[in-house]
Amino acid sequence: MKRWVAAIALLALVNCSESTAPVNLSGTWRIVFVDMTEGAFVCNIEAVDMRIVHSGGSFTGTQLGPAVRVCVQDQSTVNAAFNGETISGAIDGRTVTFALGVVPGTQDAGGNSAAGTLAGDVITGSASWLDSSGSSSLVGSFTATRLQ
C-alpha cells in the first residue's frame, strides 16, 4: 500500500512540475496551416518557418525563407508565394495566441489570428484569416513544431 501512495505522490509531483515549469518559445518553429476553409474555398500552407524571440509573456517572430499558400476552389488552384511574414503573440501557461501579419489574399494582422496549446515542442490549435474583401473568414487548424 505504501508503494501505491508513493507512486501516486510522485506522479502528482511530476505533473505539477511540468505544468509550472517556465516555457521558452525562442527558437525556430515550422508552422503548418491546414483546411483553412470558407465554403468551398480551402487553403493550406504546408510549411512556414519562423524565428521566434520570447521575452516574458510575449513573443515575436519573423519568417525564414519563402513559403506558399495553396488555395483550391472547385477545380481551380491558386498559389501565392510569400516572404517576410511576421507574428506577435503571448503565452499564458501552455496557451499560445498570436496574430499573423499579412497572409497573401487576406487582411492585415487585425483579422488574422491563431490560438493553441503547447505540449512539449508542439503547438496545436485553430486559426482564422479574414479574406481580402474583409467580408468572410477562412477557419482551420495549425500545428507548430520546434525545429531548434
Quick summary of this structure?
By secondary structure, this protein is mainly beta. 13% of the residues lie in helices and 58% in strands.
What do these coordinates show?
By secondary structure, this protein is mainly β. It has one domain (23-146): Lipocalin (Beta Barrel), CATH 2.40.128.120. Helix content is 13%, strand content 58%. It is built from one helix and ten strands; from the N terminus they run H-E-E-E-E-E-E-E-E-E-E. Strands 1-2-3-6-7-8-9-10 form an eight-stranded antiparallel barrel. A hairpin with a 2-residue loop joins strand 8 and strand 9 (122-130). It is globular. The chain starts with a helix and ends with a strand. 21% of the residues are buried. Mean pLDDT is 81; it is low at 1-18.
Record the SSE blueprint.
Blueprint: H1 2-20, E1 27-38, E2 41-55, E3 58-63, E4 67-73, E5 76-82, E6 86-92, E7 95-100, E8 113-119, E9 122-130, E10 137-146
Summarize this structure as a short list of keywords or feature phrases:
13% helix; globular; 148 residues; Lipocalin; 8-stranded antiparallel β-barrel; mainly beta
Number of strands: 10
User: In terms of per-residue confidence, which ranges show pLDDT below 50 for 5 or more consecutive residues?
Assistant: 1-18
Structural classification: mainly beta
Overall average pLDDT: 81
CATH fold descriptor? Lipocalin
CATH architecture: Beta Barrel
What count of helical segments does DSSP give?
1
| Shape label | globular
